[in-house]
Amino acid sequence: MAYLNLKRSKLEANFNYLKERFQEQGIAWGVVSKLLCGNRSFLKELVRLGVDEVHDSRISNLAKLKEINPDIQTVYIKPPSKRNISKMVKYADVSLNSELNTIRWISEEAQKQGKLHKIIIMVETGDLREGVMGDHLVDFYASIFELPNIEVIGLGTNLNCLNGVMPSADKLIQLSLYKQIIELKFNKSIPWVSAGTSVTIPLLLHQQLPKGVNHFRIGETLFFGVDLFEEKTIEGMHHDVFELYAEIIEMQEKPLLPTGTLAANPQGEVLEIDESLYGKSSFRAILDIGLLDVDPKYLLPEDGNFEILGASSDMLILNLGTNPKGYQVGDVLKFGLKYMGALSIMNSSYVDKKISE
Prior knowledge:
Layout: E1 3-7, H1 8-24, E2 28-32, H2 40-49, E3 53-56, H3 59-68, E4 73-76, H4 85-91, E5 94-97, H5 100-113, E6 117-122, H6 137-144, E7 150-156, H7 169-186, E8 192-194, H8 201-205, E9 215-218, H9 220-224, E10 226-227, E11 232-233, E12 242-255, E13 281-287, E14 299-301, E15 307-311, E16 316-319, E17 332-337, H10 339-346, E18 352-356
Parallel strand pairs: 1-18, 2-3, 2-9, 3-4, 4-5, 5-6, 6-7, 7-8
Antiparallel strand pairs: 1-12, 10-11, 12-13, 12-17, 13-16, 14-17, 15-16
């Protein structure tokens, strides 16, 4: 059976690298755990590292974290739906918000539960996902800052999450200025400018981060060590915290081209025939993982001697050429993963999850 392995030592090294960088500049941060899809064993690894703030987009995952360690500060990182507000207030200490009515509902629920709920107001800075337009921000804050059982602890933003807009010093300075305007106008203190996600880390590393930004929400760079500006591994970090292993369940020498009348496959794809391949063959391997688990474009074969031809719902098809390494049925092949590949596999109940040193 295919399985996903988490390398404990590499996760710890990545965590300590980031922790040192943030401590050097006095920046608070939390770990975005949504990639782990609520896997209890993997969440325990975060707790073991000493993480004191965890962010997630699923309330059930935050509930598991509170069971593991009630003292961890939990942050719900998408605008909550009305029907989930009761559970959200119960399990999330902080939430990211951009709708007035939602915050009013949160205030009402927090009163019922006898809790103080913290809010980060999300501000639109160009990527056009969630966020209050800057021109409306002062009026927005005026409508909520006196709501009972609500404390606004930050202004935040998301970039590169929908349309690929990258963070810049100018955008982050603007967010810091909004914070200053609100503090002066309302004589209130807002502790955080939460403008840092994994895509913002290169600005931090190259000393280009505006001083006002003092809170980060980090997922992808923790788990993949990636500089998202240059799409490369940050020196001193590891890209291979996760490893996928899949077993060969068939190995046959077959023609390179199919025979018969061609139509669309179940994925809606129609094969384009390369006539130069007629009469040629290669060794094909079928692995015990498929589209139900992961899109092949997110897999990174460790062995460069084969190519991924495609996948059906439960099987991955490889072209091994002449099979120079002599792979056989029962052999296990190793793959690295891109972020979306790891997310898909973590969400699949058909792939085992393991931990090693």
